[in-house]
Automatic annotation (TrEMBL):
<feature type="domain" description="S1 motif">
    <location>
        <begin position="107"/>
        <end position="173"/>
    </location>
</feature>
<feature type="domain" description="S1 motif">
    <location>
        <begin position="194"/>
        <end position="260"/>
    </location>
</feature>
<dbReference type="Pfam" id="PF00575">
    <property type="entry name" value="S1"/>
</dbReference>
<dbReference type="GO" id="GO:1990904">
    <property type="term" value="C:ribonucleoprotein complex"/>
</dbReference>
<protein>
    <submittedName>
        <fullName>30S ribosomal protein S1</fullName>
    </submittedName>
</protein>
<keyword id="KW-0689">Ribosomal protein</keyword>
<dbReference type="GO" id="GO:0005737">
    <property type="term" value="C:cytoplasm"/>
</dbReference>
<dbReference type="GO" id="GO:0005840">
    <property type="term" value="C:ribosome"/>
</dbReference>
<dbReference type="GO" id="GO:0006412">
    <property type="term" value="P:translation"/>
</dbReference>
<dbReference type="GO" id="GO:0003729">
    <property type="term" value="F:mRNA binding"/>
</dbReference>
<dbReference type="InterPro" id="IPR012340">
    <property type="entry name" value="NA-bd_OB-fold"/>
</dbReference>
<dbReference type="InterPro" id="IPR050437">
    <property type="entry name" value="Ribos_protein_bS1-like"/>
</dbReference>
<dbReference type="InterPro" id="IPR003029">
    <property type="entry name" value="S1_domain"/>
</dbReference>
<feature type="domain" description="S1 motif">
    <location>
        <begin position="277"/>
        <end position="346"/>
    </location>
</feature>
<comment type="similarity">
    <text>Belongs to the bacterial ribosomal protein bS1 family.</text>
</comment>
<keyword id="KW-0687">Ribonucleoprotein</keyword>
<dbReference type="GO" id="GO:0003735">
    <property type="term" value="F:structural constituent of ribosome"/>
</dbReference>
């Protein structure tokens, strides 16, 4: 068998290079917008910037060096000028799609940086293959502004894989939901009524505050914020405040919290502090037609009945008293079980008169 001539060898090699074929080559020249490759063919291969990367402003000289080996795909054997047009990006994307297909079938968790913020979600790239994560699947809570995710590396799973329709959908939400469920399970296993736990104020409403206990939210109702009276939770707490709270009740996945710690109960020593006959000073907290409620301490209100305000006839408490006014009265009745205290200013008037008469 005779040896092939140089021209025949070229002709033979030409037959082996076809559009769509994957070939190996070596970089022999790099320009900012173009890479020249020796692919063992009679003509060198050319990779334009747009066929190497999605970054339209990329400088290829900073990304590729002479001598680098590359595996590429043939786009066109002859571009009309005797050059072979190649693509690196599309081949990488095809390999990336294979990677995504495996991840989809195996329910694998992927991690990739966010490359673009779109109107309806996020775009990430895995091995040059694009994945779209709709806004509804980015988080387990509604997020209006997704810009904070730009360039951030996030984890997700592939929930839909249909490259023919250009639909490769990522889902981050289900991972967050699963993670939260695991944290909830762990927390509920070790959480008991009566425990004191640390938390952070997550949201404040008119009726209470939601406290993040580390993956689980508990409700601190307005009635449990203080032994005293709280008119507006928003004036007492703000988002981000750190608190130590008492676990008052656990019902299924709902946790009721309290700041009424037993050791600070103002009624704990009521028999001594508010014994009948004690003269005490307090501030008028609120008034009704039948009497005034006087705050003796945070969480301890006593009733000063209209008939006990003065020996003189009083039609309404508001005729002689005003909210915030400081009054001094005698404790005439104490009911610890019902947490009720009755006061009398009239009793002090009588005592003063008796003292004056004795003198």
């Amino acid at each position: 068998m005779s040896e092939l001539t140089f021209e025949q060898m070229l002709e033979e090699s030409l037959k082996t290079i076809r559009n769509g074929e994957v070939v190996d080559g070596t970089v022999i020249d790099v320009k900012p917008d173009e890479i020249v490759l020796n692919i063992g063919y009679k003509a060198d291969g050319i990779i334009t910037r747009s066929e190497y990367t999605n970054d339209s402003n990329a400088d290829l000289t900073t990304m590729v060096s002479v001598g680098d080996p590359m595996t590429v795909k043939v786009l066109k054997v002859n571009d009309g000028e005797g050059q072979v047009l190649l693509t690196y990006k599309r081949l990488a994307a095809e390999k990336g799609n294979e990677r995504l297909k495996e991840a989809y079938e195996n329910h694998e968790v992927l991690k990739a940086p966010v490359t673009q913020i779109l109107g309806g979600g996020l775009s990430v790239v895995v091995d040059e293959a694009r994945v779209f994560i709709p806004a509804s699947l980015v988080s387990d809570t509604y997020e209006k502004d997704l810009s904070k995710y730009q360039d951030q590396e996030i984890e997700f799973v592939i929930s839909e894989f249909n490259p023919r329709r250009n639909r490769v959908i990522g889902d981050r939400r289900q991972l967050l939901v699963a993670e939260k469920a695991e944290k909830q399970k762990e927390l509920f296993e070790k959480l008991h009524v009566g425990d004191t736990v640390e938390g952070v104020v997550k949201n404040v409403t008119d009726f209470g505050a939601f406290i993040d206990l580390g993956g689980v939210d508990g409700l601190l109702h307005i009635s449990e914020m203080s032994w005293g009276r709280v008119e507006n939770p928003k004036k007492v707490f703000k988002v981000g405040d750190e608190l130590k709270v008492l676990v008052k009740d656990i019902h299924d996945t709902k946790i009721a919290l309290s700041l009424k710690f037993p050791e600070s109960n103002p009624w704990a020593n009521a028999a001594e502090d508010y014994a009948v006959g004690t003269v005490i000073t307090g501030k008028v907290a609120r008034m009704t037609d039948f009497g005034a409620f006087v705050e003796l301490a945070p969480g301890v209100d006593a009733l000063l009945h209209v008939s006990q305000i003065s020996k003189a006839h009083v039609d309404k408490p508001s005729d002689v008293l005003k909210v915030g006014e400081e009054v001094t009265a005698k404790i005439v009745d104490l009911n610890e079980a019902e947490k009720k205290i009755s006061l009398s200013m009239k009793a002090l008037e009588t005592a003063d008169e008796e003292t004056a008469d004795a003198e």
